[in-house]
Amino acid sequence: ISEASIEIRAGAWPQAERTLRDSFADLEKRGDYTYSSTLVAMLAIVLVSKGEHAAARETLDEARRMTASDDVINFIFTGFAEGLMLARESRFTEAESVGRQAVELADRIDFCFGRPLAHSYFAETLALAGKPDEAVRHTATALGILEGKGDVMLATRVRERLAAVGIQVPEQVA
């Protein structure tokens, strides 16, 4: 999980996908399913980020089947990934609902990887849905968390990703 998190921070999507798939296969081979659902949920994020929506949908379904009812981070990961995927399919009402739920869950925990990702993916969802003002607020929240924690690499990726969908990204938030 840590190696894939670094690759995600770097925007190295093919490497992150390979790491997650290899890690999952390794755990399966050993019969260790402790982190399998989280690996699959993270793979869904990677596939959505790469625009591979058919594979992402299957992976989201698999992650939900594997996730324990109290595994909040997986619900956050699958929620914001699905929200963005739905927005890219122009299913904006569903996208906003799913993405907002992911953000609400993320805001209940202090996980400096999940929270800013939830806000940044939701910002992208909102931008695609034609809600730029709210998108900017979620962008500022994501960047505030990342800059406050010193996560320069992920902050850079978030800025690049959101600028690409037309969000006016604040220069420095924290």
Helix content: over 70%
Helices and strands, in N-to-C order?
HHHHHHHHH
Overall spatial form: globular
Runs in which pLDDT lies below 50 for 5 or more consecutive residues are none
Distance between the termini: 27 Å
What value does the average pLDDT take? 94
Rg over C-alpha atoms, rounded to the nearest angstrom: 15 Å
User: Based on DSSP secondary structure assignment, what is the total number of beta strands?
Assistant: 0
**Percent range for β-strand residues:** under 5%
Q: Could you say which structural class the secondary elements and strand pairing correspond to? A: mainly alpha
Q: How many DSSP H or I helices?
A: 9
Largest sheet: none
Give a structural overview.
The chain is mainly alpha-helical. It has nine helices and no strands. It has helices spanning 2-10, 13-30, 36-50, 53-66, 72-88, 92-106, 114-128, 132-149, 152-164. Helix 3 (36-50) runs antiparallel to helix 4, helix 5 (72-88) packs parallel to helix 7 and helix 7 (114-128) packs antiparallel against helix 8. The longest helix is centred in the N-terminal third of the chain and has 18 residues, at 13-30. The mean pLDDT is 94.
Key structural traits:
single chain, 174 residues, mainly alpha, 9 helices, 77% helix, 0% strand
Brief overview:
By secondary structure, the chain is mostly helical.
Topology of helices and strands:
Blueprint: H1 2-10, H2 13-30, H3 36-50, H4 53-66, H5 72-88, H6 92-106, H7 114-128, H8 132-149, H9 152-164
Helix pairs in contact: 1-2, 2-3, 3-4, 3-5, 4-5, 5-6, 5-7, 6-7, 7-8, 8-9
